Amino acid sequence: MQVQTHVDINSEWGIVAARQAGRKLAREIGFGSVDQARITTAISELARNIYLYANQGQIKIEEVSAGGKQGMKIIASDEGPGIKDLRRVMEDGFTTSGGLGAGLPGVKRLMDDFSIESEVEQGTVITAVKWLR
Amino acid sequence: MNLDIQVSEHENKNVAQVSGEVDVYTATKLKETLTPLAEQEDKELVVDLSGVDYIDSTGLGIFIGALKASEKSGTSLTLTGLNSRVKRLFEITGLHEVIDIDSTKREEA
Amino acid sequence: MEDMKVSMYQLYKDMLTSYLEDKSEHALYHAQQFSKQMMEQDMSPEETVSMHLSVFQDIADDLPEEVTDSFDLLLEVMIGYGLAYREHQSLRDRQQELESELNVAAHMQRTLLPNKKIEIDALDFGVVSVPAGKMSGDYYHYDIDDRGNFAVAVADVIGKGVPAAMSMSMIKYAMDTLTDKQMQPSVVLESLNRVVERNIDDDMFITMMYGVYHPDDHYFYFSSAGHEPGFFYTAKDDTFVSLEAKGLVLGVSPKVRYEEQKLKLDPGDFVVFLSDGVTESRVNGEFIEREQIVDMIRERLHMDSQEIVNEIYEQLEKAQEFQLRDDFTLMILRRKV
User: Fold this and answer.
1) How far is residue C224's CA from residue C6's CA, in Å, rounded to a whole number?
2) Rounded Cα gap, residues C158 and C207, in angstroms
3) Residue limits of the Histidine kinase/HSP90-like ATPase domain (chain A) (predicted)?
4) Using CB atoms, which residue from C76, C80, C87 is nearest to A105?
């Protein structure tokens, strides 16, 4: 049975809790300190987006394996306003979060796989995976 | 390179007092102020250019836009206080024939 | 990739060891060169910090726990810098992409301008046209019509850059559709005005000066759509006068009549067409006066037209420290014999 953790995001405390849980799991899976910090930053950015733009949502983290590789998956979901122009938020220079100034393109860079689904008025689901090398 | 616009509302007209340089950098600001005024159906628009030393072609375009907007809304656009350099620009472009220019206020400079 | 990291690690370890031994400037110089290598290999700031810590742990025994822990914080901070650095790189790539796209567009735009040689014995013709940026809002034209008359034009779209350039191509295509090959200035401007008025933004317009020279009787006919006046030089009196004709800029009103003027060109007489990029050149922060342009031409009366316009452009470009504020077009048409 693989590890799976949910953290509800409705305050800055939630962001910190998600970071903590993410860093712990990353360490357990065997990521080095740089990748641990990257994964944590990615979680942080995703959680901040939820907190700032959707008020509340959820970060789910889990261990994954595929094709002999092991990794860690982050799923950030909310039922907030959604994103109208996905292409635009994925462009560099368009900063959605006041966080590290990285926004979603930053998360994509920090992780290996990245996907986003969003519907206006419905919410957004972002999935990102980092593989162990 | 700055532009200052003061708008005063009167019973049947709006007066926009413009000072500074009207160029490619400040044109947007002027447009954002003048267009809604020119679109007001019941009031004429007077633009006082006494404080303007220089207008470039982009700036001139804003007045054409305002003229077209005021024609659509059935009112009028009048320019006053043009200095000689600005006045020459309106004359060269033939715009003095289509825009009402009141030259009683300022001819020197 | 991994091998590369191993060798970078070893290099860094050697450098740090040597520095800790002798604290030499030499080792620091190596570090500076090394940083370039790191960037070439896309090594991020956070990887660098992490490498420093590992190397440090390798060569120094018993690092105090506070030192090791402090790197956690530094690592976290550096990730932000790393992202900013990558974003910067990607924006730089995109800028290069846009730039090359713009170069292609600028090249296409140049193909809209005439480039054939003029072969009329009586004429000496020269033109220079340089955009302030990559693309131009100025347009010029010359052509010989069916009856052997020589037509010239200079047009100026307000603003500059890409939006002006897009409108400029409209003028070119509109001129191509003029069916009447005997080009009469007032008629040409009237029909261009109709096209422009229908197709241009409310707060844009185009100015244009259009002229036709008849080599058989040496008359020059011209009309202006609100364009910067040119000059007319008469050799007999050695004087310049302003070349003006009444007419509204293109694109403001659908029905406009254009006044047409005519001049007799005697041998040595010439007309000058220009765009306001010439008259609005600022030298030492001051606009140059039209008189100064006249003076510059006067000093070069002995040269041929192309030399005159080239030299004036070069002089004004230099006086403005090679920063043109607006697109620049200058044209001279002289009757030789």
Assistant:
1) 73
2) 8
3) 34-133
4) C87
Residue that terminates a domain, selected from C105, C131, C158? C105
C291-297 — which CB contacts under 8 Å span 24+ positions? C293/C231, C294/C231, C294/C240, C297/C231, C297/C233, C297/C240, C297/C272, C297/C332
Does the distance separating the beta carbons of B56 and C280 come in below 8 Å? yes
**What does the alpha-carbon distance between residue C157 and residue C275 come to, in Å, rounded to a whole number?**
10
Band of pLDDT at residue B108, cut at 50, 70 and 90: very low
The domain tally of chain C equals 2
What is residue C287's predicted lDDT score, i.e. its pLDDT? 74
Distance CA C242, CA C107 (A): 34
How far C253 CA sits from the closest chain B CA (Å)?
Answer: 9
pLDDT for the residue C150? 93
**C216 and C135 in a common domain:** yes
C207 touches chain B (CB under 8 A): yes
| Residues of chain A below pLDDT 50 | 96-102
For strands C206-214 and C219-225, give the pairing: antiparallel
**What confidence score (pLDDT) does residue C308 get?**
96
Please give the model's pTM, rounded to 2 decimal places. 0.75
Do C90 and C121 reside in the same domain of the chain?
no
Token output for C179? 């069916």
User: Structural domain of residue C249, as residue ranges?
Assistant: 112-335
Tell me: the pLDDT tens digits for C235-254? 999 999 999 999 999 999 99
Q: Report the SS3 class of residue B16.
A: strand
Question: Mind listing the domains of chain A with CATH numbers?
Answer: 4-131 (3.30.565.10)
Residues in chain C with pLDDT values less than 70: 1-2, 179-182
Q: Average model confidence (pLDDT) for chain B?
A: 88
Q: Are B53 and B83 in contact (CB under 8 A)?
A: yes
- State residue A98's pLDDT score: 45
CA distance C12 to A72: 31
Interface touch C76/A40, C-beta < 8 Å? yes
Q: Are residues C58 and C173 in the same domain?
A: no
Q: What is the pLDDT of residue A2?
A: 67
Determine the Cα–Cα distance for residues A73 and B22; give it in Å rounded to an integer.
55
Same domain for C207 and C68: no
B3-102: what CATH class? Answer: alpha beta
Burial label for C163, CB within 10 Å (0-12, 13-18, 19+), is middle
Min distance B10 CA to chain C CA atoms (Å): 26
